[in-house]
Every structure is written in structure tokens, then in C-alpha cells.
Specification:
CATH class: Mainly Alpha
Radius of gyration: 16 Å
Helix content: 55-70%
Oligomer: single chain
Strand content: 5-15%
Shape: globular
CATH superfamily: Winged helix-like DNA-binding domain superfamily/Winged helix DNA-binding domain
Structural class: alpha+beta
Order of helices and strands: HHEHHEEH
Distance between the termini: 37 Å
Strand order of the largest sheet: 1-3-2
Number of strands: 3
Largest sheet: 3 strands, antiparallel
Amino acid sequence: MKNSAQRDLFPGALEMMILRTLKRQPLHGYALVQHIKRTSDDLLQIEEGSLYPALQRLLKEELVKAEWGISSTNRRVRIYKLTAAGAKHLERQVSSFEKMLEGITRVLARGES
């Protein structure tokens, strides 16, 4: 069962985290999940049922590309890489998210009237 943190991700949050992670370095799906989990101090645990459809959407939109490679455990894996279009999209999404977060923070800081 998913925890509330996963259910409460806003639309596009997973894609934004995937793109940001791939900006660091190309990775395969399992490594992406582990990086997000580790970076969030285990607050976010992405399920395969969410990750792979998100990766397919990003591939279709040409925001990432994929190549076959070999993992550190000597298994054949798809390695995902950020495209130039993906980097630009990420920049726009992060900017939009920061503005939204600022607005939410302002509303929450006002307290009850």
C-alpha cells in the first residue's frame, strides 16, 4: 500500500524528480528509484507502477532518451539520459513549482483569520 507522501505528490512531481536526477547522471530505473528514496531520506518510495509509466511519458515527449546498457550487477538494463529539451522543461517546471510553493507558504504562514 502506498504511503500518504506518494498519494500526495502533485501532478508532474515524479517527472520533475526523474528529470532532476537524470541531470546529475544517466541511470537505469532501479537506480532512479534508489536515488529518489535516498535523497528524500526515505520519505519518498516510488513504485515501479508509477516510475515506468512516467519514464514512458518522458520518452514519448522526448525529454529523456534510453539506451541499453549493463548494470553494476551485470544485468541488461535501459539507461535513461536527459535530453536538451528535457533540461529546458525541467528548468521551467522547477521555476513554476517554486512560485507555487512560495504562494502556498504565504497562505499557510498567515494562519487563521
